[in-house]
Amino acid sequence: MGVSGRQLRVYVVEDSAMLLSRLVELLEGTGVAVVGYADTTATAIREIDATVPDVVIVDIALRHGNGFDVLRMLAARNGVRRPTAIVLSNYTSGPYRAAAKRLGVEYYFDKSSEIFTMLKVVASMARSIGLRNGSDS
Predict the structure, then answer these.
(1) In terms of residue numbers, what domain contains 18?
(2) Structurally, how many domains does the chain consist of?
(3) How far apart are the first and last CA of the chain?
(4) In CATH, what number is assigned to the domain containing residue 88?
(5) Is residue 125 situated within a structural domain?
């Protein structure tokens, strides 16, 4: 965290309650603020607009809807600050990755083997925001 105390704000869209709980714990351990989470498209879209996160971590398969609906909403944010989009999913084949890239996804991680890599990327973002804010003081 920088001198200003600004934390990276992260929103998580994940339908597995067990994984969601673990992800929130791991993310908070990197020093970020998890500002919300959802397991459906409708809830995610409503709450992302309300919480204005810096980063949105999205699973493709959700309880209702799918992560691409959330990613399309983020991609359509003309004139509004877009959060960094990260996909964390078991759906990792080329067509899924290509569709996500077309929607502006910066990072795509395999849920079964790359969670810790994703956490390192988020921790790096958190350090970066802390440095920027610390130098603004």
Answers:
(1) 9-114
(2) 1
(3) 13
(4) 3.40.50.2300
(5) no
